[in-house]
Amino acid sequence: xxxxxxxxxxxxxxxxxxxxxxxxxxxxxxxxxxxxxxxxxxxxxxxxxxxxxxxxxxxxxxxxxxxxxxxxxxxxxxxxxxxxxxxxxxxxxxxxxxxxxxxxxxxxxxxxxxxxxxxxxxxxxxxxxxxxxxxxxxxxxxxxxxxxxxxxxxxxxxxxxxxxxxxxxxxxxxxxxxxxxxxxxxxxxxxxxxxxxxxxxxxxxxxxxxxxxxxxxxxxxxxx
Length: 224
What we know:
Distance between the termini: 10 Å
Shape: globular
Strand order of the largest sheet: 5-4-1-6-7-8
Order of helices and strands: EEHHHHEHEHEHEHEEH
């Protein structure tokens, strides 16, 4: 990778900048002892629904997918999800906690355009960015919503090129999700897979250019 040609860094949001499982605390408050199971199943179905809807050509926005995944997860675990609980849990997605190093690393990347590129719709992303005070460290927030197709479909990644007016080889994409990293690599981005927990990368024939354990390891790579 010729770092002199890099113009933009695109970060996935959920699981990369923001910890989706920070909802466990509220899940456990509402359903004692079930917080971890509920959070994990909720996230799993959220991802599955985005992939399945992309394959079926039945796009709905991220808010609806997230809510439908929550409803399924509660039904599967036999948890009583009334309207008040549903609203409380959905609101938690607007207040997810960023990973510890995020607020320190983003301000150090001012030499490049810094953007979120996410399956999340802007009505979810923008309040979250504002709530966590990260908006001052981002140049843009890009959603697949305008493309009406979810990552890892190639048409979704095209939104980065359209919004930032850059070429594929001028972008470094950072994601903690192996499927997303593989999709971005297949599309033609340079890819850093953020592997915080020592996972194994998926066998999809599209390995990342770099594997990092936290965002702090990104800057030395870009400065080479």
